[in-house]
Design a protein that fits this description.
Two copies of one chain form a homodimer. Chain A is of the alpha/beta class. Chain A is 45% helix and 15% strand. At the A-B interface, helix 7 and helix 8 of A face helix 7 and helix 8 of B.
Chain lengths: 286, 286
């Protein structure tokens, strides 16, 4: 089901099984929360979340405002028992064929130890849903020594170490997480969002330098092709799609600047979450 | 003056004007603060900081523990009037020939608005010492809208906007800071350290992918050379050296894994800080 301006959508899906739902208003990032929740009923995001809340659809994918998506999801779908607030999780590429999950990436700012502990449980459930057995989980910090970092992270370390359901691997520094054998990295939402965007910015910077040098080089077609592959391997589009964990339903946030491939990846992630029964896995763990 | 095991140092500097000072004990990262301050008098770091505190030397460069260097510097040298705690600043490469400064990178965890404001003043003084006129300063945050981010950052935004001495440019997201025209980026020490290490880790990851692809490619010598240049342009060694701002003297921290070139860059940074009268610039501004 496609939610938006049906006059624009219908011609694109004619002759398919897809359905256009007319909900033409677009929520803006700057819309106040109250307007989103109360006045936003004619918005495409409100209509889409209503559809999964009413069991007319199994999962929702949106490239709209993260704050709006989070607020509407909590309000209309609700969180699983015991979950205070959902967290945003993303799967990132490590060295080799390795993948790891990082959360929270921006939904929860200034969280305490209990919430970091809950992120660890939800992240491990997501890893299990991806087929990882006994996932290893670490806390993002600025050193590996026990006394490093903010009080909340140090207190969370005790909670994670004491929880027999978790395979706790200690602190991880962000420069090591890509090369580690971790499955889940846990962090406060403000810090996690900063870390993710710093990594993206640095890679973009490396690409800029690469492009400048290659423009001057007599590179063979084969080399250019391989370098393009490197660039693609870290293309955010390829890893587009962040799941909102802790809700009663599957909701995936796509990047606002996603292209066709990126949005398709976000949809594929929603389908994968459904077939792996991600919500039930989290309900059982957290 | 070289501080350490004089038996090892002396043969290396024979016939030069350099001097070896015998202070053979090495402070460990795990040494408790009390041991560093009281019991560490025979350590090389303690001896070096004593030398600048006693005006026997103008600046100190150390590749030892950041925590130890910060504690000894505060204890033996002291901070400038009005500075509560020093901040760690580093100059990073942006696109083109642009450079920008980022602070704090790990000395102060969980800081409030007043301290972020002070970081902005010190960072702008450092930019001025580098020859930047009317430096533009921004706060690192997870969005550009005013209501984004932690309370401390939002409150700091008001302080920076109201300070006529500053050219305040608003919030900057870390994926945009490399391509922006900013001169100073201000952030809490925990978050700044995470952002820096996430950027380093992502670049290392890109290099890993690059190396893997190039190993399989029939790359010409010229192309390999240019790619090496890209790697070097983001080599942390080249930007090695973080200044401790807010002290009565020049203290520069080198990365513990610095090579010859990296350590030389840290020394060059200390010399540049002296010739630009960095301490006086900060005293005048902060």
């Amino acid at each position: 089901m496609f939610f938006g301006d049906a006059r624009a959508i219908s011609p694109l899906i004619r002759g398919t099984k897809h359905e256009a739902v007319h909900a033409p208003r677009l929520l803006e990032v700057d819309d106040p929360l109250r307007a989103t929740l109360r006045g936003g009923v004619d918005s495409s995001m409100h209509a889409a979340i209503r559809a999964i809340a009413g069991d007319n659809a199994d999962a929702a994918v949106s490239a709209g405002s993260t704050g709006g998506l989070m607020a509407l999801s909590r309000h209309l779908i609700g969180t699983l028992p015991g979950i205070r607030r959902p967290a945003i999780v993303k799967t990132l590429a490590g060295e080799g064929e390795r993948r790891f999950r990082m959360l929270d990436l921006g939904a929860n700012i200034g969280v305490g130890p209990a919430q970091l502990h809950q992120f660890a449980l939800m992240g491990c459930a997501a890893a299990s849903a991806d087929g990882v057995q006994e996932p290893a989980v670490a806390l993002l910090n600025i050193g590996s020594e026990l006394r490093k970092g903010p009080r909340s992270v140090r207190a969370a370390a005790n909670l994670l170490a004491d929880d027999a359901r978790l395979r706790y691997a200690g602190y991880i520094e962000p420069d090591r997480m890509f090369g580690s054998s971790l499955d889940v990295v846990v962090v406060d939402g403000y810090v996690g969002n900063i870390a993710l965007k710093a990594a993206e910015g640095a890679v973009r910077m490396a690409h800029y330098l690469l492009g400048r040098e290659l423009a001057n080089a007599a590179a063979s077609g084969q080399v250019v092709e391989r370098l393009q592959r490197v660039r693609d391997a870290y293309n955010p589009q390829r890893y587009n799609g962040a799941a909102l964990l802790g809700l009663n339903k599957v909701v995936v946030k796509s990047h606002g600047g996603a292209d066709r491939q990126g949005f398709a990846n976000a949809v594929a992630q929603a389908i994968q979450a459904l077939s792996a029964a991600l919500v039930a896995q989290i309900a059982a763990r957290a």
